[in-house]
Write a structure and sequence with these properties.
alpha/beta, Rossmann fold, seven-stranded mixed beta sheet, 18% strand, globular
Length: 269
Protein backbone atom coordinates (compact mmCIF):
# COMPACT_ATOMS: atom_id res chain seq x y z
CA UNK A 1 0.00 0.00 0.00
CA UNK A 2 1.42 3.36 -1.04
CA UNK A 3 0.22 6.12 1.30
CA UNK A 4 1.90 9.13 -0.35
CA UNK A 5 -0.46 9.39 -3.37
CA UNK A 6 -3.45 9.19 -1.03
CA UNK A 7 -1.89 11.81 1.26
CA UNK A 8 -1.42 14.16 -1.68
CA UNK A 9 -5.03 13.67 -2.73
CA UNK A 10 -6.25 14.42 0.79
CA UNK A 11 -4.00 17.48 0.92
CA UNK A 12 -5.50 18.85 -2.28
CA UNK A 13 -8.96 18.62 -0.73
CA UNK A 14 -8.30 19.92 2.78
CA UNK A 15 -5.67 22.57 2.06
CA UNK A 16 -8.07 24.86 0.25
CA UNK A 17 -8.91 26.90 3.37
CA UNK A 18 -7.65 27.02 6.99
CA UNK A 19 -11.11 25.92 8.11
CA UNK A 20 -10.90 22.75 6.03
CA UNK A 21 -7.38 22.07 7.32
CA UNK A 22 -8.56 22.36 10.92
CA UNK A 23 -11.49 20.10 10.08
CA UNK A 24 -9.03 17.60 8.62
CA UNK A 25 -6.99 17.62 11.83
CA UNK A 26 -10.14 17.06 13.85
CA UNK A 27 -11.12 14.11 11.67
CA UNK A 28 -7.68 12.57 12.05
CA UNK A 29 -7.88 12.98 15.82
CA UNK A 30 -11.24 11.23 15.88
CA UNK A 31 -10.43 8.45 13.42
CA UNK A 32 -6.83 7.51 14.19
CA UNK A 33 -6.42 5.38 17.31
CA UNK A 34 -2.77 6.41 17.53
CA UNK A 35 -3.96 10.00 18.09
CA UNK A 36 -6.13 8.85 21.00
CA UNK A 37 -3.12 7.19 22.66
CA UNK A 38 -0.76 10.10 21.93
CA UNK A 39 -3.22 12.69 23.23
CA UNK A 40 -3.71 10.69 26.41
CA UNK A 41 0.05 10.64 27.06
CA UNK A 42 0.50 14.34 26.23
CA UNK A 43 -2.27 15.25 28.69
CA UNK A 44 -0.51 13.18 31.35
CA UNK A 45 2.87 14.79 30.58
CA UNK A 46 1.28 18.24 30.61
CA UNK A 47 0.50 18.01 34.33
CA UNK A 48 4.18 18.46 35.19
CA UNK A 49 5.35 20.27 32.07
CA UNK A 50 7.22 23.60 32.16
CA UNK A 51 5.06 26.63 31.39
CA UNK A 52 7.18 27.52 28.35
CA UNK A 53 8.00 24.00 27.23
CA UNK A 54 10.20 23.39 24.20
CA UNK A 55 8.93 20.50 22.09
CA UNK A 56 10.30 18.62 19.09
CA UNK A 57 7.76 17.03 16.74
CA UNK A 58 10.03 14.48 15.09
CA UNK A 59 8.62 13.48 11.71
CA UNK A 60 5.52 15.67 11.93
CA UNK A 61 3.70 14.47 8.78
CA UNK A 62 0.56 16.54 8.28
CA UNK A 63 1.32 18.60 11.40
CA UNK A 64 -1.75 17.45 13.29
CA UNK A 65 0.11 16.65 16.51
CA UNK A 66 1.84 20.04 16.46
CA UNK A 67 -1.56 21.67 16.03
CA UNK A 68 -2.97 19.66 18.94
CA UNK A 69 -0.12 20.59 21.28
CA UNK A 70 0.02 24.29 20.42
CA UNK A 71 -3.76 24.54 20.65
CA UNK A 72 -3.58 23.20 24.18
CA UNK A 73 -0.96 25.72 25.29
CA UNK A 74 0.06 28.79 23.31
CA UNK A 75 3.17 29.17 25.48
CA UNK A 76 4.65 25.92 24.24
CA UNK A 77 7.17 26.29 21.43
CA UNK A 78 7.20 23.48 18.87
CA UNK A 79 9.77 22.71 16.20
CA UNK A 80 8.76 20.17 13.58
CA UNK A 81 11.41 18.22 11.67
CA UNK A 82 10.69 16.18 8.53
CA UNK A 83 12.63 15.03 5.47
CA UNK A 84 9.96 16.13 2.98
CA UNK A 85 10.33 19.70 1.70
CA UNK A 86 6.74 19.93 0.51
CA UNK A 87 5.37 19.04 3.95
CA UNK A 88 7.64 21.59 5.63
CA UNK A 89 6.53 24.33 3.24
CA UNK A 90 2.89 23.33 3.56
CA UNK A 91 2.87 23.35 7.37
CA UNK A 92 4.83 26.60 7.67
CA UNK A 93 2.33 28.24 5.35
CA UNK A 94 -0.72 26.95 7.21
CA UNK A 95 0.48 27.80 10.71
CA UNK A 96 1.38 31.33 9.58
CA UNK A 97 -2.12 31.69 8.13
CA UNK A 98 -3.67 30.91 11.51
CA UNK A 99 -1.12 33.08 13.39
CA UNK A 100 0.49 30.32 15.40
CA UNK A 101 3.80 32.09 15.94
CA UNK A 102 5.15 29.55 18.43
CA UNK A 103 5.61 26.93 15.69
CA UNK A 104 8.31 26.36 13.09
CA UNK A 105 8.96 23.54 10.62
CA UNK A 106 12.32 22.64 9.14
CA UNK A 107 13.69 20.07 6.72
CA UNK A 108 15.89 17.67 8.64
CA UNK A 109 17.13 14.09 8.87
CA UNK A 110 16.40 12.56 12.28
CA UNK A 111 19.49 10.36 12.01
CA UNK A 112 21.54 13.57 11.99
CA UNK A 113 19.43 16.16 13.83
CA UNK A 114 20.62 16.87 17.35
CA UNK A 115 20.27 19.97 19.52
CA UNK A 116 21.93 19.47 22.88
CA UNK A 117 19.72 19.80 25.98
CA UNK A 118 17.07 21.75 24.06
CA UNK A 119 13.71 20.01 24.52
CA UNK A 120 11.35 19.10 27.32
CA UNK A 121 9.40 16.71 25.11
CA UNK A 122 10.09 14.83 21.89
CA UNK A 123 7.04 13.42 20.11
CA UNK A 124 7.64 10.74 17.49
CA UNK A 125 4.48 9.24 16.01
CA UNK A 126 4.63 6.47 13.40
CA UNK A 127 8.14 7.40 12.32
CA UNK A 128 10.60 4.85 13.68
CA UNK A 129 9.25 2.07 11.47
CA UNK A 130 10.45 4.13 8.49
CA UNK A 131 14.06 4.59 9.69
CA UNK A 132 16.76 1.93 9.35
CA UNK A 133 19.30 3.66 11.64
CA UNK A 134 16.96 3.72 14.62
CA UNK A 135 19.59 3.58 17.37
CA UNK A 136 21.21 6.73 16.00
CA UNK A 137 17.83 8.47 16.17
CA UNK A 138 17.27 7.33 19.75
CA UNK A 139 20.73 8.69 20.62
CA UNK A 140 19.86 12.04 19.06
CA UNK A 141 16.60 12.17 21.02
CA UNK A 142 18.44 11.46 24.27
CA UNK A 143 21.03 14.17 23.70
CA UNK A 144 18.43 16.69 22.54
CA UNK A 145 16.34 16.29 25.70
CA UNK A 146 16.83 18.39 28.78
CA UNK A 147 17.33 16.64 32.12
CA UNK A 148 13.96 15.20 33.09
CA UNK A 149 12.64 15.53 29.55
CA UNK A 150 10.55 12.80 27.94
CA UNK A 151 10.36 11.17 24.53
CA UNK A 152 7.00 9.76 23.44
CA UNK A 153 7.06 7.19 20.64
CA UNK A 154 4.16 5.52 18.86
CA UNK A 155 5.17 2.70 16.50
CA UNK A 156 3.93 -0.71 15.30
CA UNK A 157 4.85 -3.79 17.34
CA UNK A 158 5.99 -7.17 16.10
CA UNK A 159 2.65 -8.66 17.16
CA UNK A 160 1.07 -7.99 13.78
CA UNK A 161 2.04 -4.34 13.35
CA UNK A 162 1.71 -2.95 9.82
CA UNK A 163 -0.98 -5.68 9.45
CA UNK A 164 1.66 -8.40 9.07
CA UNK A 165 0.80 -11.81 10.48
CA UNK A 166 2.58 -15.13 10.69
CA UNK A 167 2.52 -16.14 7.04
CA UNK A 168 5.94 -16.62 5.49
CA UNK A 169 7.05 -13.78 3.18
CA UNK A 170 3.96 -11.70 4.04
CA UNK A 171 4.70 -8.03 3.44
CA UNK A 172 3.72 -4.94 5.38
CA UNK A 173 0.38 -3.34 4.56
CA UNK A 174 2.36 -0.11 4.21
CA UNK A 175 5.18 -0.32 1.66
CA UNK A 176 7.22 2.55 3.13
CA UNK A 177 8.02 0.67 6.36
CA UNK A 178 11.59 -0.65 6.71
CA UNK A 179 10.50 -2.88 9.62
CA UNK A 180 7.11 -4.41 10.30
CA UNK A 181 7.24 -3.66 14.00
CA UNK A 182 9.33 -3.64 17.18
CA UNK A 183 9.59 -6.31 19.80
CA UNK A 184 8.70 -4.58 23.08
CA UNK A 185 11.97 -5.67 24.72
CA UNK A 186 14.02 -4.82 21.63
CA UNK A 187 13.01 -1.17 21.52
CA UNK A 188 13.63 -0.77 25.25
CA UNK A 189 17.07 -2.36 24.96
CA UNK A 190 17.98 -0.05 22.09
CA UNK A 191 16.89 2.99 24.08
CA UNK A 192 18.84 1.87 27.15
CA UNK A 193 21.92 1.49 25.00
CA UNK A 194 21.94 5.26 24.27
CA UNK A 195 21.42 6.36 27.88
CA UNK A 196 17.72 6.13 28.74
CA UNK A 197 17.20 4.46 32.11
CA UNK A 198 13.54 5.09 32.94
CA UNK A 199 11.40 3.55 30.18
CA UNK A 200 7.70 2.69 30.11
CA UNK A 201 6.59 0.60 27.12
CA UNK A 202 3.06 -0.72 26.68
CA UNK A 203 0.89 -2.20 23.97
CA UNK A 204 -1.86 -0.38 22.12
CA UNK A 205 -4.06 -1.66 19.35
CA UNK A 206 -5.32 -4.64 21.33
CA UNK A 207 -8.35 -6.53 20.05
CA UNK A 208 -10.68 -3.47 20.09
CA UNK A 209 -8.03 -1.32 18.41
CA UNK A 210 -7.30 -3.85 15.68
CA UNK A 211 -10.98 -4.00 14.74
CA UNK A 212 -11.26 -0.20 14.79
CA UNK A 213 -8.12 0.21 12.65
CA UNK A 214 -9.47 -2.09 9.97
CA UNK A 215 -12.82 -0.28 9.90
CA UNK A 216 -11.47 3.27 10.06
CA UNK A 217 -8.21 2.99 8.12
CA UNK A 218 -7.38 -0.26 6.35
CA UNK A 219 -10.60 -0.74 4.42
CA UNK A 220 -11.02 2.93 3.37
CA UNK A 221 -7.34 3.24 2.36
CA UNK A 222 -7.56 0.01 0.37
CA UNK A 223 -10.58 1.35 -1.49
CA UNK A 224 -8.90 4.70 -2.18
CA UNK A 225 -5.81 2.94 -3.43
CA UNK A 226 -8.00 1.22 -6.01
CA UNK A 227 -9.82 4.34 -7.15
CA UNK A 228 -10.15 7.95 -5.97
CA UNK A 229 -13.85 7.68 -6.80
CA UNK A 230 -14.26 6.10 -3.38
CA UNK A 231 -13.83 9.63 -1.91
CA UNK A 232 -17.47 10.13 -2.84
CA UNK A 233 -18.76 7.31 -0.65
CA UNK A 234 -16.37 7.81 2.28
CA UNK A 235 -18.67 10.17 4.23
CA UNK A 236 -21.48 7.61 4.07
CA UNK A 237 -19.10 4.80 5.00
CA UNK A 238 -17.90 6.65 8.11
CA UNK A 239 -21.44 7.67 9.04
CA UNK A 240 -22.20 3.99 9.48
CA UNK A 241 -18.91 2.71 10.91
CA UNK A 242 -17.59 5.56 13.07
CA UNK A 243 -19.91 5.08 16.10
CA UNK A 244 -18.46 1.57 16.43
CA UNK A 245 -14.90 2.88 15.94
CA UNK A 246 -15.40 5.55 18.61
CA UNK A 247 -16.42 2.97 21.22
CA UNK A 248 -13.61 0.62 20.20
CA UNK A 249 -11.02 3.45 20.37
CA UNK A 250 -12.21 4.45 23.82
CA UNK A 251 -11.96 0.87 25.10
CA UNK A 252 -8.52 0.38 23.56
CA UNK A 253 -7.13 3.62 24.98
CA UNK A 254 -8.40 2.92 28.48
CA UNK A 255 -7.45 -0.75 28.70
CA UNK A 256 -4.11 -2.42 29.45
CA UNK A 257 -3.28 -5.01 26.81
CA UNK A 258 -1.14 -8.12 27.19
CA UNK A 259 -0.32 -7.80 23.51
CA UNK A 260 -1.19 -5.51 20.63
CA UNK A 261 -0.11 -4.42 17.19
CA UNK A 262 1.07 -1.01 18.40
CA UNK A 263 3.54 0.22 21.01
CA UNK A 264 3.48 3.35 23.14
CA UNK A 265 6.94 4.01 24.55
CA UNK A 266 7.85 6.74 27.02
CA UNK A 267 11.42 7.32 28.17
CA UNK A 268 12.93 10.00 30.39
CA UNK A 269 16.42 11.50 30.48
Amino acid sequence: MQYDPIKRSLGNVFNRTPFLRKLFYRLLDLLLLRAWHVHREIKSWEKGAPANAEILDAGFGFGQHTYYMTSRNKKWNVLGIDVKDEQVDDCNRFFKQINYNNVEFQVGDLTKYRKENAYDLVVCVDVMEHIEEDVKVFENYYNSLRKGGMVLISTPSDQGGSDVHDHEHEESFIDEHVRDGYNIEEIQDKMRSVGFEKIDASYGYGTPGKISWKLSMKYPMTMLNISKLFFIILPFYYLITYPFCFVLNYIDTNTKHKTGTGLIVKAWK
